[in-house]
């Protein structure tokens, strides 16, 4: 049996069992909590360099099976990868983004199935980081708390006009209109999101306050008509090369004295290169094609160059780790229902993706930041209180 395994594997001490296609098995340590069932004999040789991309791809393509809780699978597979694979210090390849490419990428991810997303998201279907003020909140409570935090940071007032860039299924737009009395113009590139979002706007009787449209951010009006702008979980799709254009469009869309909130995932390294020994490659191939994560310093620099003044930055990394734990567990609790909504390969992708991202945020591979900026008046004055105390009252 030992002769069938690469020598590098024989030296490891992990709670991992390898079960081969011929029924033989080998424990890499005592009391294995995870079993990798190898179905393709060619995979054994590749286990000398088990990147997370290789392991994830093999699972998605049915070349191996994973036994154990998905959370434990991610932990043990990362330890296996750490032991045998070095983190590559490679500079990221810049991706070309245009309207057609971005529309196709968004459709691939978000037009998957509204019913599938309903299985594991909160009731408002907020597909972004929740806010756990005490740590004891349910997922629904944490997402409402996130909506409230965003609205408070934007200092929304009745009658103001809010632009929601990447509005998703419209949960934040409806909350802002309902609870803060603002008018909202929300845009998305997902036809499935738009259809359900409009349905929910109508169900709540908010048609006179919330207008959701299928629109690319590059086609937004540039006449400063909006009092406030919020962008949640969207700029990850913009691309490094287009960040300057994105920030300039937001600058031109908001009035002088107005506020812009950019809430999105940021990279660990200043040059935006991915971490996780192939985890980023897996996500780009199967989950978010053409996605690019800028570092906090990169996006704040572009915001500033556009003429906006950054006035507040807050990391919610640990909040997103907790949010993803909720999502992952809810999906795991509904695997039978999920299997009827999406193909088996898709479900395999999402099981790894949600649990893997929870692990990535918990371990600092990626971050998420809320960046609040203002468009100063011509004389440099701004419309903000001197402290952030009002946000937390």
From TrEMBL:
InterPro entries to which the protein is assigned, alphabetical: CFA/CMAS, CfaB-like, CMAS, DUF7884, SAM-dependent_MTases_sf
Domain of life: Bacteria
Active-site residues (renumbered): 357
Matching SUPFAM superfamilies: S-adenosyl-L-methionine-dependent methyltransferases
GO annotation, biological process: lipid biosynthetic process; methylation
Keyword annotations from UniProtKB, A to Z: Lipid metabolism, Methyltransferase, S-adenosyl-L-methionine, Transferase
Cited CDD domains: AdoMet_MTases
Domain DUF7884 intervals: 12-85
GO molecular function: methyltransferase activity
PANTHER family tied to this protein: CYCLOPROPANE-FATTY-ACYL-PHOSPHOLIPID SYNTHASE
NCBIfam families, alphabetized: cyclopro_CfaB
Family: Belongs to the CFA/CMAS family.
Entry protein name: Methyltransferase domain-containing protein
Source organism (scientific name): Pseudomonas helleri
């Amino acid at each position: 049996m030992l002769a069938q395994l690469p020598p590098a594997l024989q030296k490891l001490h992990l709670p991992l069992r390898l079960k081969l296609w011929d029924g033989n098995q080998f424990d890499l340590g005592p009391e294995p909590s995870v079993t990798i069932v190898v179905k393709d004999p060619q995979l054994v040789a590749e286990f000398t360099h088990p990147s997370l991309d290789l392991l994830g791809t093999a699972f998605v393509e049915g070349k191996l099976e994973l036994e154990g809780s998905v959370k434990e699978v991610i932990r043990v597979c990362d330890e296996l990868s750490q032991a045998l694979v070095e983190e590559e210090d490679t500079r990221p390849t810049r991706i070309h983004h245009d309207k057609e490419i971005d529309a196709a990428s968004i459709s691939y991810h978000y037009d998957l199935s509204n019913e599938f997303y309903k299985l594991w998201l909160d009731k408002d279907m907020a597909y972004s980081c929740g806010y756990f003020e005490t740590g004891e909140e349910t997922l629904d409570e944490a997402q409402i708390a996130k909506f409230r935090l965003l609205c408070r940071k934007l200092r929304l007032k009745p009658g103001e006009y809010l632009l929601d860039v990447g509005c998703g299924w419209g949960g934040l737009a409806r909350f802002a209109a309902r609870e803060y009395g603002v008018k909202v113009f929300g845009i998305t590139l997902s036809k499935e999101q738009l259809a359900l979002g409009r349905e929910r706007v109508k169900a709540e009787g908010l048609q006179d306050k919330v207008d959701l449209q299928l629109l690319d951010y590059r086609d937004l009006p540039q006449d400063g008509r909006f009092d406030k702008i919020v962008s949640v979980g969207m700029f990850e799709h913009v691309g490094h090369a287009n960040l300057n254009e994105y920030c300039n469009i937001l600058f031109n869309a908001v009035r002088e004295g107005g506020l812009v909130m950019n809430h999105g995932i940021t990279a660990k390294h200043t040059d935006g290169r991915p971490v996780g020994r192939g985890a980023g490659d897996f996500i780009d191939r199967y989950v978010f094609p053409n996605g690019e994560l800028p570092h906090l310093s990169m996006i704040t620099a572009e915001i500033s160059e556009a003429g906006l003044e950054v006035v507040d930055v807050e990391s919610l990394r640990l909040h997103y780790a907790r949010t993803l734990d909720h999502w992952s567990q809810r999906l795991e609790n509904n695997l039978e229902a999920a299997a009827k909504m999406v193909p088996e390969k898709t479900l395999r992708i999402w099981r790894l993706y949600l649990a893997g991202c929870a692990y990535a945020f918990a371990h600092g591979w990626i971050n998420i930041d809320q960046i609040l900026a203002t468009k100063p008046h011509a004389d440099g004055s701004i419309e903000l209180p001197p402290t952030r105390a009002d946000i937390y009252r």
